[in-house]
């Protein structure tokens, strides 16, 4: 597949999931000159997108590029040179199972979700390796908001694959002037950075919602990054990856803007919105990742008090006030 990608100036690209991020990435792919299929399950939704050339539900006001073909036919969408899986983290396994009979061997599957599978504690790249052993996984992650990307505002992210040549090739095929991709072979570091920062963003949102101030927010980002760093390095991530776009960069963006669904979810909780209504019917991946992140940290003997507090609040074992008090009452220690 690396050779066939090298031979193509514009490969056929499929984007699986027509939410905000999937639609934004489809626009990016089409701007490279590629023919793009944008797949979604809901027939009525995809009919609207096709008729109006606009995803009014998830990205209103932003037109689809001319080279994008909306579809509900997964069999056709699987016939691509590159496939971007933009479904939620907890839905990746079922998508891979559906793809198994239709995807050609060695076609890369680029994971664009940020999370860890709850039922198995599996990293998303390992889910792909298990279900689709002949299709190399890649991870696209970094500081990015769908609306900014769709509008063509400058954005830089990381594209990771175990094979350096493949990572370079995919990055080259998806890059446009406003969407810069840095390539990496540190799959584990890139995917952990994306998964863990969502949990920490909920904590920062809660603090903002409770009016704890900018100083508390900065402390949460710094100490949250220390937690992320401990967890990631214990699982084989490289320190330089964690200091880059998919680690610190994504953490800073997600922990400081209400455009982030996870931060907005935490903000609503901090302002007193009941847990069941706090997401506003939008997916906050960190709410699903918190428990498995804490379980994995505990199993590896890794201290993650901020993530643990988020998990306890979300499972209603602690009130927000109790969680804040427990963090403030932790004994003093060396910062290192």
Annotate the secondary structure layout.
Blueprint: H1 2-6, E1 13-16, H2 20-31, E2 36-39, H3 43-52, E3 68-71, H4 74-77, E4 82-85, H5 92-99, E5 109-111, E6 116-117, E7 122-123, H6 124-131, E8 137-141, H7 146-150, E9 155-161, H8 164-174, E10 179-184, H9 187-209, H10 214-234, H11 239-242, H12 245-254, H13 261-270, H14 285-299, H15 305-314, H16 320-328
Parallel strand pairs: 1-2, 1-4, 2-3, 4-5, 5-8, 9-10
Antiparallel strand pairs: 6-7, 8-9
Helix pairs in contact: 5-6, 9-10, 9-12, 9-13, 9-14, 9-15, 14-15, 15-16
Characterise this structure.
The protein is an alpha/beta fold and 336 residues long. The protein has 16 helices and ten strands. The protein has helices spanning 2-6, 20-31, 43-52, 74-77, 92-99, 124-131, 146-150, 164-174, 187-209, 214-234, 239-242, 245-254, 261-270, 285-299, 305-314, 320-328; strands at 13-16, 36-39, 68-71, 82-85, 109-111, 116-117, 122-123, 137-141, 155-161, 179-184. Strand 2 (36-39), helix 3 (43-52) and strand 3 form a beta-alpha-beta unit. Helix 9 crosses helix 15 (305-314), helix 14 crosses helix 15 (305-314) and helix 15 (305-314) packs antiparallel against helix 16 (320-328). The protein is globular.
């Amino acid at each position: 597949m690396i050779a066939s990608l090298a031979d193509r100036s514009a490969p056929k690209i499929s984007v699986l999931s027509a939410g905000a991020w999937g639609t934004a990435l489809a626009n990016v792919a089409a701007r490279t000159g590629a023919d793009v299929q944008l797949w979604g399950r809901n027939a009525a939704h995809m009919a609207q997108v096709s008729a109006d050339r606009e995803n009014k539900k998830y990205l209103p006001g932003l037109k689809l590029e001319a080279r994008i073909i909306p579809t509900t036919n997964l069999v056709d969408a699987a016939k691509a040179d590159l496939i971007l899986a933009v479904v939620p983290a907890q839905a990746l396994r079922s998508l891979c199972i559906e793809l198994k009979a239709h995807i050609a061997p060695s076609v890369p599957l680029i994971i664009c979700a940020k999370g860890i599978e709850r039922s198995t504690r599996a990293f998303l790249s390992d889910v792909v390796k298990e279900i689709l052993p002949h299709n190399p996984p890649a991870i696209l992650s970094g500081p990015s908001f769908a609306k900014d990307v769709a509008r063509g505002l400058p954005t830089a992210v990381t594209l990771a694959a175990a094979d350096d040549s493949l990572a370079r090739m995919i990055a080259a095929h998806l890059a446009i002037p406003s969407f810069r991709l840095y390539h990496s072979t540190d799959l584990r570091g890139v995917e952990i950075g994306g998964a863990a920062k969502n949990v920490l963003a909920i904590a920062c949102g809660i603090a903002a919602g409770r009016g704890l101030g900018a100083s508390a927010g900065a402390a949460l980002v710094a100490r949250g990054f220390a937690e992320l760093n401990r967890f990631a390095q214990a699982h084989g991530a490289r320190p330089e990856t964690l200091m880059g776009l998919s680690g610190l960069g994504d953490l800073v963006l997600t922990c400081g803007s209400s455009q982030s669904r996870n931060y907005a979810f935490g903000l609503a909780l901090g302002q007193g919105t009941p847990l069941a209504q706090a997401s506003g019917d939008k997916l906050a991946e960190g709410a699903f990742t918190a428990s498995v992140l804490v379980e994995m940290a505990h199993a590896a003997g890794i201290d993650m008090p901020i993530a643990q507090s988020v998990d306890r609040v979300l499972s209603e074992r602690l009130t927000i006030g109790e969680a804040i008090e427990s963090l403030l009452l932790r004994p003093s220690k060396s910062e290192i």
